[in-house]
User: What shape does this take?
Amino acid sequence: MNWKKIRTVLLTALFLSLIPVTRYYQIDQPILRSLEGRRPLNPVELHLAGEFVESNLGTEIDSNGSVTLRMLAQQYLFIPHCVLIPAGVPVHLRITSADAVHSFAIEGTGYNVKVLPGTVSQTQLQFPDAGVYKTACREFCGAGHYAMRSVVKVVPREQFPALRPEERGNCAAE
Ligand code: CUA
Assistant: This one.
């Protein structure tokens, strides 16, 4: 084997090793969840109890001032269908699936989060300015895949705390 081949093999190995790293860094692994003594997420019971009950979905300002956005993906919608988040601050997204594998992509941005049943995918979103973004599912998940869309509305930071929790969750303020 000459050096050129060795270099090609090494670069390929390096490239392939990046795929699991970028894919899984944001996923709350079930094995870690059980090692930490937390109950596994059961996709069919999400609406009954726990973090992803309907009343807990949407954007929330935590006691320490940080912003968390909780969402649910299911065939063939994102819940809430429209969410409001503040501009200029990091928003901690936590999203899980009630059925198939989906992907939550915010169009016009680099955000594309794979969503799996039984695990929580998380990432940090940040938008410098107010605006309206369309989102789409980018993982083929069945007959209604191409209609699986929603909206993220980024509102000025100072406007956000004035919104009632139910307005933050479903864009009812509009
Ligand atoms: Cu959900 Cu495609």
